[in-house]
Design a protein that fits this description.
The strands form 2 sheets. This protein has a 7-stranded parallel beta sheet with strand order 3-2-1-4-5-6-7, sandwiched between helices. The mean pLDDT is 92. It is 43% helix and 18% strand. The protein is an alpha/beta fold. The N and C termini lie close together (12 Å). The longest helix is centred in the N-terminal third of the chain and has 22 residues, at 71-92. It folds into 2 domains: 2-175, Rossmann fold (3-Layer(aba) Sandwich); 191-367, Glycogen Phosphorylase B (Rossmann fold, 3-Layer(aba) Sandwich).
Length: 382
């Protein structure tokens, strides 16, 4: 049995949570998930075929509410995670532990070594790149990496980052990120989404994800005046919440785009396919901000799986998900004109958009199907 420890897990939305969930869903080996508590977990957990243990004293929505995050909060939360890991390792006696984030492991390393239980952790992006800039956190990362059996790099970009930092190549295994083809597919009925947000007879540009600066919502909004010159019926639909919402709303007001930008707020994962199917083009113009990067970008795969063309910021590991000119376009994430021109091209050239959407779906089926990736991760841990 594998004990999977994560601070990101549905119904909370996020890349690490999605990856952890899909590994648990498609694992052929028994997995028990140790995850944070949040609203709505009871109905979600009951619907799964694997067992999820909720850390009742760790509610990420409380710990990470706007303005609450600090070093003290992070330290307290990691200490609580360490207690939970020790408790359930003793209680469940797993064969191995898999941490979705390296910091979740360092408090328990001596204990796991004492019990001779192998552990593994994932590398997604920012959480392994940013610590390398600090002597203290770099030392902690190397301490965890010294005793880890394998580091599962979710993308080649992460493997290169750690290899250049000095982590032994023998510890590093790169696999693709992936998505759930059972959930994300074309021809999902999106009529209710179109009616609710008044999208009928509109050209819809969509972004899904947390509202944080590196996701590039601001650059898409800044590109809209240029887009609207060529596509007057275009609208920008933003799905997700986050600390940047107030700034984005202010930018929309400043540019007089209130009728053209729609903030849909939080949408449960199960409903996201309706939003992807309601759009004409998906965009996330990710860029690096203060060391925070897009390690891969699962949302590009989700949109492609629904048969939609995508536009990605040329930053971090996005090139692993988006092949320029095949399933979408890579753009300079701080060049408003370039962003606008690629949006206009896909909104006005229906044949090109459909071809890219179809190729994107084929690419996801062949390379980014998480049912296959879960087996690959298990093979590495075996």
């Amino acid at each position: 049995m594998i004990l999977l420890v994560t601070l990101g897990f549905p119904p909370l939305v996020g890349g690490i949570g999605t990856d952890s969930y899909l590994l648990a869903k498609y694992s052929s080996e028994k997995i028990v998930v140790l995850a944070p508590n949040c609203r709505g977990v009871e109905n979600f957990d009951e619907a799964q075929r694997f067992k999820t243990i909720r850390m009742k004293f760790i509610d990420v929505q409380v710990f990470y509410r706007t303005g609450a995050r600090s070093s003290l909060v992070d330290t307290l939360m990691l200490a609580l995670v360490g207690v939970y890991v020790l408790l359930y390792t003793v209680k469940l006696k797993p064969w191995k532990l898999y941490f979705s984030h390296w910091t979740l492991s360092f408090l328990t390393v001596p204990f796991l070594r004492l019990l001779k239980i192998p552990y593994y952790f994932a590398a997604h992006g920012t959480e392994v790149k940013k610590p390398l800039e600090s002597r203290f956190y770099r030392a902690l990362l190397f301490f965890c990496a010294k005793y880890v059996r394998k580091i599962i790099c979710l993308g080649y970009h992460q493997k290169v980052t750690l290899m250049k930092a000095g982590i032994p190549l023998s510890k590093l295994n790169a696999v693709n990120e992936g998505t759930d083809l059972e959930l994300f597919k074309p021809d999902v009925d999106s009529s209710k989404v179109a009616q609710r947000y008044n999208l009928i007879n509109k050209k819809v540009i969509l972004t899904t994800g947390r509202l944080v600066k590196r996701k590039g919502h601001d650059m898409v909004i800044k590109s809209l005046p240029r887009v609207l010159e060529h596509v007057p019926n275009a609208v920008y639909l933003i799905v997700g919440n986050g600390m940047e919402r107030e700034n984005l709303e202010a930018l929309v007001k400043e540019l007089n785009l209130k009728e053209k930008v729609i903030f849909a707020g939080y949408v449960p994962k199960r409903d996201l396919p309706k939003f992807y199917n309601a759009c004409d083009v998906f965009i996330m113009a990710s860029r690096e901000v203060d060391g925070d990067i897009e390690g891969f970008g699962i949302v590009y795969l989700e949109a492609n799986a629904c048969g939609k063309p995508v536009i990605a910021g040329k930053s971090g590991g996005t090139a692993a998900a988006v092949r320029h000119g095949v399933n979408g376009f890579l753009v300079n994430p701080v060049n408003v004109e370039e962003i606008a021109d690629q949006i206009v091209l896909l909104l006005t050239n229906r044949k090109l958009a459909e071809e890219m959407g179809k190729k994107g779906r084929q690419l996801v089926k062949s390379k980014f199907n998480y049912a296959l990736i879960a087996r690959e991760i298990q093979d590495i841990m075996d």
